[in-house]
UniProtKB/TrEMBL annotation:
Taxonomic placement: Bacteria, Bacillati, Bacillota, Bacilli, Lactobacillales
InterPro entries: AhpC/TSA, Thioredoxin-like_sf, Thioredoxin_domain, TPX, Tpx_Peroxidase_subfamily
PROSITE patterns according to UniProt: THIOREDOXIN_2
GO molecular function per UniProt: thioredoxin peroxidase activity
Pfam families listed in its UniProt record: AhpC-TSA
Name listed for the protein in its UniProt record: Thiol peroxidase
UniProt-listed Gene3D superfamilies: Glutaredoxin (3.40.30.10)
Annotated Thioredoxin domain residues: 17-164
Keyword Disulfide bond (UniProt): yes
Record SUPFAM superfamilies: Thioredoxin-like
Organism for this UniProt entry: Vagococcus humatus
Alphabetical list of PANTHER family matching this protein: THIOL PEROXIDASE (PTHR43110)
Alphabetical keyword list: Antioxidant, Disulfide bond, Oxidoreductase, Peroxidase, Redox-active center
CDD domains: PRX_Atyp2cys (cd03014)
Length: 165
């Protein structure tokens, strides 16, 4: 798969989960050094927000938007994932007042499992996955131009519809 960064093409390695598939399992550390597994997020709809670098503008906008939504919707699990270090994520969250679940993937284990790792830039592709309460992918968006925001409204709409089932 190819995406672009400010118009320059980049190759995304691997196979990305698609609608109807079970989401690949993962376990990552959060800012409190606790292991958070996919299984621990399930039982309710899940929004996985994947950002390339928390220290860039679009990633910050994406994370702040989902942090705002997470504060208002307690019946949906939200997690932001990047391959930034714990320290980078913690410093940014402290400066911005963000308190949602932040998971760091500095070894790109999640990125490789989800087919989102871009080796030539050592970042993850920008993506959103909405999972149902059992872990099936019901919505996925891998943003074709990394420097653009994802469709927040569509992801949130799909997640909210899962609450009605």
């Amino acid at each position: 798969m190819e995406v672009t960064l400010k118009g320059s093409p980049l190759t995304v390695e691997g196979k990305q989960p698609t609608v109807g598939m079970m989401a690949p399992i993962f376990t990552l550390k959060n800012l409190q050094d606790k292991s958070v597994s996919l299984e621990s997020l399930l039982g309710q709809p899940v929004i996985l927000s994947v950002v390339p670098d928390i220290d860039t503008r679009i990633c910050q906008l994406q994370t702040k938007r989902f942090n705002q939504e997470a504060g208002a919707m307690h019946d949906i699990s939200f997690a932001t994932i990047s391959n930034n270090t714990k320290e980078q994520q913690a410093n940014w969250c402290a400066a911005e007042g963000v308190d949602m679940e932040m998971l760091h993937d500095p070894d790109n284990q999640f990125g490789k499992a989800y087919g989102l790792y871009i080796p030539e830039a050592n970042i993850l592709a920008r993506a959103i996955f909405v999972l149902n309460k059992t872990g099936e992918v019901v919505y996925e968006e891998i943003v074709s131009e990394i420097a653009q925001e994802p469709d927040y409204n569509q992801a949130l709409t799909v997640a909210k519809e899962l609450l009605l089932d």
